[in-house]
């Protein structure tokens, strides 16, 4: 890591904000990193960890951007097209009216099966996953609505990868992104014997009261569907971690994720077709999200800040430019890149704060401070 090109006082403010909740006991441990000009220029580990800077964290839905980046490669290679029907590549998928679902709809979370079930033991084998696909049913006509597909959409994406590449999806992700970029901490599917450096997620804090929800969101609470506390603890546990659940089971250090987003900004190794690297960040889904009613602002498998001033919906900061893209994750995980400044940022923690409003405020505060670290 070279000498930082960032403003030291602004970096200190960022670290101070991150330390606040470590000091208050809200999060046991955390990492944050900033990337700039193709490198990681700031990397810090806070709190009680087993391996210091070598510690890794469960990324939860930040994993989705890594999976999507592999799909972008398929699009650039002409092996996959947005208008393709998923069932044309995976015949088992084309049941119960799903034969009309397109690749684009899967990437945009408009495909109509937001909570389609797939868990153990079926998710451990390709046969089990395809059999689950055949049982899935639609909640609405594909392409007519948006609802976050926490795990179902990414399972389809990785099976498209496996079908086209002819290898296990975890191997495909490793060959296409992780290995070429030299990301030694980033991994999807961590063997049990290699999990010792991963910080075990723990629940912290208390959920907001209905009055707090009402004051902030105008509603008495949130229905997070399958993203329950028990589900998050299980997803961060040994068995699920070894499977490599593509919607939320990847592990990494904050440094590797900041470097991954630098690779997307600079097309490191020319791994992506430049046209598709740009197309992936175009906002294609502006359906209202289910919580705040503002446009979802989604690109191909990622979240995009957009020009409407509502980038805080994704945990982006008040000072990020409209082209900022990335993905957040349960428990306050966050990773993004800002083409307007060239910065990338990642924050990972093992403290799953049940106070989702406080967690959301932290993400916006950290993002705002990270974006301010670059000299004008």
Q: How many strand elements?
A: 11
Unreliable spans are none
**Overall geometric form:** globular
Oligomer: single chain
**What portion of residues is helical?**
25-40%
- End-to-end distance, in Å? 22 Å
Sheet with the most strands, sense and barrel status: 6 strands, antiparallel
Task: Count up the helices.
Answer: 13
Could you report the average pLDDT, rounded to the nearest whole number? 92
Gyration radius over CA: 19 Å
Please give the order of strands in the largest beta sheet.
2-1-10-9-8-7
Percent of sequence in beta strands: 5-15%
Structural class: alpha+beta
How are the secondary structure elements laid out?
Layout: H1 8-23, E1 29-36, E2 39-47, E3 56-58, H2 63-76, H3 86-89, H4 103-108, H5 126-135, H6 152-165, H7 169-178, E4 198-199, E5 202-204, H8 210-217, H9 229-235, H10 238-243, E6 251-252, H11 254-266, H12 274-279, E7 303-304, E8 325-329, E9 333-338, E10 343-349, E11 351-353, H13 356-371
Parallel strand pairs: 3-4, 5-11
Antiparallel strand pairs: 1-2, 1-10, 3-6, 7-8, 8-9, 9-10
């Amino acid at each position: 890591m070279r000498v930082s090109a960032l403003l030291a006082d602004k970096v200190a403010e960022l670290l101070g904000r991150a330390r606040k909740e470590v000091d208050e006991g809200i999060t046991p441990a955390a990492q944050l990193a900033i990337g700039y000009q193709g490198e990681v220029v700031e990397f810090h580990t806070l709190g009680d960890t087993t391996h210091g800077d070598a510690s890794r964290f469960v990324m939860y839905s930040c994993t989705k951007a890594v999976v999507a980046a592999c799909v972008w490669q398929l699009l650039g290679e002409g092996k996959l097209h947005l208008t393709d029907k998923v069932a044309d590549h995976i015949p088992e998928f084309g049941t119960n009216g799903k034969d009309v679902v397109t690749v684009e709809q899967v990437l945009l979370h408009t495909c109509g099966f937001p909570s389609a079930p797939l868990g153990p033991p079926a998710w451990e084998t390709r046969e089990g996953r395809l059999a689950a696909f055949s049982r899935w049913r639609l909640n609405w006509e594909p392409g007519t609505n948006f609802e976050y597909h926490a795990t179902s959409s990414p399972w389809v994406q990785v099976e498209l990868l496996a079908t086209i590449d002819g290898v296990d999806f975890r191997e495909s992700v490793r060959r296409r992104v992780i290995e070429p970029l030299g990301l030694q901490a980033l991994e999807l599917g961590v063997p049990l014997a290699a999990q010792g450096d991963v910080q075990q997620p723990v629940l912290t804090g208390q959920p907001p009261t209905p009055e707090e929800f009402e004051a902030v969101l105008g509603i008495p609470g949130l229905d997070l569907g399958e993203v329950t506390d028990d589900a998050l603890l299980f997803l961060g546990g040994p068995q699920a971690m070894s499977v490599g659940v593509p919607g939320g089971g990847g592990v990494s250090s904050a440094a590797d994720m900041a470097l991954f987003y630098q690779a997307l900004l600079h097309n490191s190794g020319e791994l992506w077709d430049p046209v598709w690297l740009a197309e992936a960040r175009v906002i294609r889904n502006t359906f209202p999200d289910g919580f705040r009613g503002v446009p979802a602002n989604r690109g191909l498998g990622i979240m995009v800040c957009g020009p409407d001033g509502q980038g805080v919906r994704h945990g982006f900061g008040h000072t990020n430019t409209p082209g900022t893209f990335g993905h957040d994750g349960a428990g306050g995980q966050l990773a993004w890149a800002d083409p307007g400044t060239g910065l990338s940022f990642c924050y990972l923690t093992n403290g799953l704060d049940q106070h989702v409003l406080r967690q959301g405020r932290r993400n916006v505060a950290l993002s705002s401070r990270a974006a301010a670290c670059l000299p004008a």
